[in-house]
Design brief:
76 residues; alpha+beta; GMP Synthetase, Chain A, domain 3; three-stranded mixed beta sheet; 3 helices; globular
């Protein structure tokens, strides 16, 4: 899931070299943390959070075939 989020984020931002994706386990869930440059936050979140919701939907769909619960957090 980490690589999927990284590929999507790098395609959206102006500074792909500053994209950092971390993955951790918590209470049996996988949490993927996405960090981007400050000026790219709007591109990753989108108007009314539509891009962020779309990223979460894609990751959730990819995780469902492995029967895992994956959450995506966008950090500053």
């Amino acid at each position: 899931m980490k690589e999927l989020v990284k590929i999507i984020a790098m395609a959206l931002v102006d500074h792909p070299e500053e994209v950092v994706v971390l993955e951790r386990e918590e209470n049996g869930n996988t949490i993927v943390e996405l960090k981007v440059a400050t000026e790219d936050m709007g591109k990753v979140i989108g108007k009314q959070g539509r891009i962020a919701k779309a990223i979460r939907t894609v990751v959730k769909a990819a995780a469902s075939k492995d029967e895992k619960k994956v959450m995506v957090e966008i950090l500053q």
